[in-house]
Amino acid sequence: MENSMRHYAGIIHIGTVNMAMKIISYTSMEDMEVIENVSQEVMYGEEVFKTHHVSFRSLNEICRILNGFKQLLCDYDIHDVRVITTTAIREADNMLNALDQIRVRTGFDVDVIHMTKEIYYKFFGLYYHVLEGTFNFAGHAVLLVDITSGGMGLTCWQNDQLLFQQNVYLGSLRILENFTRKQREDISFPTAAREFIHGSLSPLWASVHEHDIRYVVLSGKSATLLGRLMQIVPQQGVTLIEPQRFRDFVHSFHGLTPFKLMQRFGLSESVANVLMPTIMLYYELFRTIDVDMVVLMGTTFTEGYSMHYVAEKTNDSYMEHQRRLLLGLARTIAGRYLYNPDHSSRVESYSVEIFRALYARCGLEYRTGYLLQLAAILHETGKFINMRKHRVCSYELIRQTDLFSLSDEEKEIVASVASYINPDMPSDHADWINRALRPGLEVLVAKLQAIFSLADAIDKSHRGKIPSIRAVLGDKELRLYCQTEVDISLERWSFIQAGKNFEEIFGITPRLLKEKV
Length: 517
Description:
Blueprint: E1 7-14, E2 18-26, E3 32-41, H1 45-51, H2 56-76, E4 81-85, H3 87-90, H4 95-106, E5 110-112, H5 115-131, E6 141-147, E7 152-158, E8 161-168, H6 172-176, H7 181-184, H8 189-201, H9 205-209, E9 213-219, H10 221-229, E10 238-241, H11 243-251, H12 258-265, H13 269-288, E11 293-297, H14 301-314, H15 317-336, H16 341-358, H17 368-378, H18 390-400, H19 408-418, H20 439-457, E12 469-473, E13 477-482, H21 489-506, E14 509-514
Helix pairs in contact: 2-4, 5-14, 8-13, 11-13, 12-13, 15-17, 16-17, 16-20, 17-19, 17-20, 18-19, 19-20, 20-21
């Protein structure tokens, strides 16, 4: 929903190579303007990777830069500020102490973004530009390769559908941390680094080769810098590189090292240490898959996060578009575990209908309906592992899967709902799961579980006896109307059983009623 009032926000990213801040003004996603964009190269990144500790000196550097950003925010009179960090702090053994020190010394509360969401924010911003027509991929399969300091994400799409998404802990600085400084100076280092990358990435190639990928998209500051170093002029915001030209560029170094990048291009050591393994990751990718063109786009993590922030604040329709993409990806993931797509689809549609009738009155945020849909899609995946304890298996599979766009807490919600156990059914007790949910989440999970169990009961036989339902919420009753001419005794009895918990949670009595066909 577009709001004509102009809003202002500051987005600060505590990164591994640099710290950056954007000050944005917006009324909508289409009317979002960056009015200040500053960044400061930092020195602590490699130290944090090697020691897994934020030292006193590193903390001083972070707080000094943050206080400089704070002064600029005061000059602009910006009060809505988000401070986020990724690999730089999230993997430190003293993360909580570092976050507390930053809060005490700067007044900023820092939100730690985990890797899956970090990769997602970049995709969110980049895909928006693709839909806006930044580059026409003509319906071909496209692979986005997003390399961060701590990891790499591969996201593949075609014709507005996500085909697969995989993340690995193999980022630019994470590669270097496997080699000592002396080893990096050895003549064999380029070969050893390339073989290390090849061995680490080999499990990914099966997914990549399933699709006829014709374009690879590289994004962010490293990709933009690569285009400049190769002296390729951008065209309408994108840089196009033929794969062979990139390979020739790498071969021209006769063994690529950070020192050679510093020598040839005058880069700082910290930038060269990030760029060298990034280039080697790209090189290994292009040795493995044959593509027509490499597309460099400048979308950064901070830009993607800013766009996501504005989209949420303004309830932009692009959020719903993204959810449709992500639900499709969830169905692809469920397909790996030979789930029953017809049953899951019916439970999903029932859940959506019940949720839409309830959420506004019963204290549920609209977005939690998306988590409910994910639970409905994934709730039978555990049967692929163990039929006897399928709920336990579903719970762990969901928690341990990178579900694009979800935080760990949101995954816990989805897993808890999908693995719901009816305490009144003795046969369910073999699947009992001890969950440690914080009090606020317990209430939300209980509400979503009550809706899910009701929806699942309506297709208890997995035979699709009830194609669809129509939910009508009264003062004290939720009436679910269905049209069917077959015997639904099992579904009705299961519904009554699930309805007991639903009534306790919501204070509303559910009724399953037949309509005349």
